[in-house]
Write a structure and sequence with these properties.
178 residues; alpha+beta; Thiol Ester Dehydrase, Chain A; 5-stranded antiparallel sheet; globular
Length: 178
């Protein structure tokens, strides 16, 4: 079919960022600020999404971010990002963050996140992205889980809209009773 995009393997979108955490990244308790990690996560995920779609992609949502272990000043942080699944114009990117203590060599999984990106054309409008074609069992499992998260995001958005609509109806009734 003309205009159909060729599927891409999730591994084609893999991005790895490595950064030494400095005092500039510290929060008021002396650990690395969660916001510093979130910025790195968003950067790596955005690069992964751009690599998958071959162009500009913007953050639409950070679906989930878990902080499992603290990151300390002077840790070497590694951020790994890869597209888990793709819709028509959007992509879910999974990100894993690890911190290495350079003095001891100890490496820990510190956080994970799932972000949604939308590919944009030159006019800033959403554009189609290539579908995902998993090649390994792990990639297939990540895609299955990404589809479940997408269903949950859509169901949550529909429930919120319904609750807002119900609230508007109740407010309208209250206004008419005055």
């Amino acid at each position: 079919m003309v205009g159909e995009l060729a599927p891409r393997a999730p591994s084609d979108s893999e991005v790895v960022l490595v950064q030494l955490m400095t005092i500039l990244d510290a929060n008021n308790v002396g650990n690395v600020h969660g916001g510093s990690i979130m910025k790195l996560v968003d950067t790596a995920a955005g690069l992964s999404a751009a690599r998958h779609c071959g162009g500009l992609a913007v953050t639409a949502a950070m679906d989930e971010m878990s902080f499992l272990e603290p990151v300390y000043v002077s840790d070497l942080v590694t951020i790994k990002a890869m597209v888990n699944d793709a819709g028509r114009t959007s992509m879910e990117v999974g990100v894993r963050v690890e911190a290495e203590n350079l003095a001891t060599g100890r490496t820990v999984h510190t956080s994970s996140a799932y972000l949604v990106f939308v590919a944009l054309d030159a006019e800033g409008e959403p554009r189609p992205v290539p579908p995902i074609e998993p090649r390994t069992e792990e990639e297939r499992q990540r895609q299955v889980e990404a589809k479940l998260r997408r269903e949950n995001r859509l169901a949550r958005a529909a429930a919120i809209r319904a609750a807002r609509d119900a609230g508007e109806v109740q407010q309208t009734r209250a206004d008419h009773q005055r």
